[in-house]
Amino acid sequence: MSSPAAPAADRTALDGSALAGTLSEVYAFETTRAVVRCSSCGHTDVLARTTVHLSAMGGVVRCATCAAVLLVVVERPDGVRVSASGAAWVQAPPR
Fold this sequence. Notes:
1 helix
């Protein structure tokens, strides 16, 4: 059984802050301080410490530990769509 491989020397990888503005259209809290747990390896950390790969359509958020996909964010004409199928959960930061 193989695990997802991290993109080798990917110069386009950013941290989770790269999607903060886009995610603020979906979530009513400061998304960079939100905590996310990886369904694959169980690693838990703030979204700002994840790895993000941006494209013209949105971004893919990967676990910083195992590189599994946590979130897929797509910017569409009718709004922002988020799939969080790789995250066990996402927790809003304390107010």
